[in-house]
Amino acid sequence: MTGLAGGKPRFSGLFFGTLGVGGLLLLWELGHRLYGSLVLPGLDDTVAALLRLHRQGQIWPALAQTAWHAGLGWGIGAIAGSVCGGLAGLHRPVRQALQPVSVILLGIPAIAWIVLALLWFGGGWAVIFTVAVATGPIVFAAATQGARSLDGELAQMARAFGTPPGAMLRDVYGPHMVGHLFPALATALAMSWKVAVMAELLSGSGGIGDGLAAARARVDTAETMAWITVVVSVLVAVDQGLLRRLQCRAELWRDTEGTGAG
Question: Which of 217, 65, 201, 90 lies closest to 145, judged by CA?
């Protein structure tokens, strides 16, 4: 019965997800028929442009470069945000010092960071820096909240039983922090791709953003939509194929805890 019960939500999610994507594609084609190819290319034109880019060998090198920019920037922002947020959550003076800085960083638009980064670094490092500074404050806020809501009594009990520091981190602090950090990390990862593409478009540092800039210069809306399709496809694949599986594994402790309580 458990397998059947578990299968129904999965089937329901797949059905309604397919329905939602199908509706979006229908609206896309309707917009094309109403406004023409210059404003919104048709699905067939977009697929043709996508196949042409693939035959010319442009997609994979651009995808790899954007993944490098977005991934490294996200990693730097995630580490800095997690460490600073954890310290801010555990120590009030650190929180009082860093929270205003986080608010200021969040308030500065990504486009402004790109302009500054181009003056400071230039090239690919401008993209990486922009991604890191745009995503770090998101992770910082989640890490701060997670650290502040740690169960002090549980930690004290674990220390009283002589729990080693590694086990404290893995079994006491880790599961709690994952519940707060994972949604923020997933959100920051999606944002990192969007910021990276925008920074590449403005900086001319390669990647998908460079492809979009070239398509814009030629007023080729079909190629523009083809590059957008590549970005969205990667995000969907990462979300469905990686992030959801990692979240299920990371939160197994909750299911175990609930079973034990029952």
Answer: 90
Q: For residue 176, give both structure tokens.
A: 């709690």
Using a 10 angstrom Cβ sphere, with 0-12 exposed, 13-18 middle and 19 or more buried, the burial of residue 186 is: middle
Q: Which ranges of the chain would DSSP assign to H, the alpha helix?
A: 2-35, 43-55, 59-90, 92-107, 110-120, 123-148, 152-160, 165-167, 174-203, 207-217, 221-238, 244-250, 252-261
What pTM, to 2 d.p., does this model score?
0.78
Q: What is the pLDDT of residues 31-87, one digit of tens each?
A: 888 887 788 888 888 899 999 999 999 999 999 999 999 999 999 999 999 999 988
Name residues whose C-beta falls within 8 Å of residue 99's C-beta, 6 or more positions apart in sequence: 88, 144
C-beta separation of 196 from 207 below 8 A: yes
Distance of CA 133 to the CA centre of its chain: 14
Q: What is the pLDDT of residues 135-187, one digit of tens each?
A: 999 999 999 988 887 655 555 665 665 665 555 555 556 666 777 788 888 88
Q: Give the Cα separation of 208 and 196 in Å (integer).
A: 9
